[in-house]
Queue: 2 jobs
Job 1
Amino acid sequence: MNNQPSRNLTNELAKERNRDAADRTLMAWIRTCLSLISFGFGIDNIVTALAKTRVGNGADVVFSARAIGACFIILGIVALAFATVEHQRLLKRIRQDDFFYTPGRSLTTAVAVALTIIGVFALFAVLVKTVSIKI
């Protein structure tokens, strides 16, 4: 006699589809985080080049732009770490035979909030720069 529990083909195929979906989601997070990191790195390189040619008009502008670039890099790194951890948790849940969907915290919402904060910071940096140029 076989002591292994019988497997339902429909359930096993559903698990495989869920695994594939989880992998696609992780790949999307990798692309998003790579874009955030690259964008932050690009901002820093542009600001460095402008500061070397003295096209920029002050250290506060360089600092603001570098801070915004660093925020993009940090957000990309942190989001990638959380996405990887969440992917591993999901794979562990899929391997269990008693998998039930329970909605969890949304990494997407957290990244959207962080990008909003960075955007507000960037807006204030531009407004301060604009006001200081007019004065």
Job 2
Amino acid sequence: MAKDKAGAIRVGIGGWTYEPWRGTFYPEKLAHKRELEHASRQLTSIEINGTFYRGQKPATFAKWRDETPEGFVFSLKAPRFATNRRVLAEAGESITRFFDSGVTELGSRLGPINWQFAPTKAFDPDDFAAFLDLLPKDVDGHAIRHVVEVRHASFQVPEFVALARSHGVAVVVAADSDYPLIADPTASFVYVRAMGTVEGETAGYPPKALDAWAERAKTWAAGGAPDGFEPIAGEPETTPRDVFLYFISGHKVANPAAAMAVIDRLG
């Protein structure tokens, strides 16, 4: 957690099933069925990738809820069937089916929904606005937080930032990557996917870089903009925000160590 009057900071990884993590993150003899139990006690959030590729059952979401401690939060990758389409305004059925699959069974563990778009998907203002209009703000009494992961340079304009802000939808901060960097806060939370872990560093990044990630998280949580992550659409309101920081891709075997190192620095 961040300091008083700042938002909550949660740090994690993408998924929890990855064979090279056995012996590096998971104890060698840990039963596979206990991997989520273990991971959720070392980290404070996990981004679930499996929901991008296939639907899940309500019982599965309930199981994930029950295996994780109070205060732990999942983010979910929304289904590709909603975002990998030519006309986004026609995604309504896929969006409804996703929320009808039982995601709210996660209860208090339900965090942001990440709507990831293909790197080839360009910004069409009218069609993207129509898509954002389809995203529900509330499902079964649960407030839903949305974040869009846009990966085409055409989105790197003030018009897109204003559109996301008008809907209260966050934009993924694609850090240490080749994707366009859009660091403007547009919602009540900041969602960062750091993709720069490298082989040869025990925790994926050098110690000074891990220090920097912890300080950036604190700055975002307090409502500020870290150096190197300045907004492109003018200064937003300085408001404390929750922060979700995931170490994704890069040298994947080191991502849990990077996340734990930052959690340790946050105290």
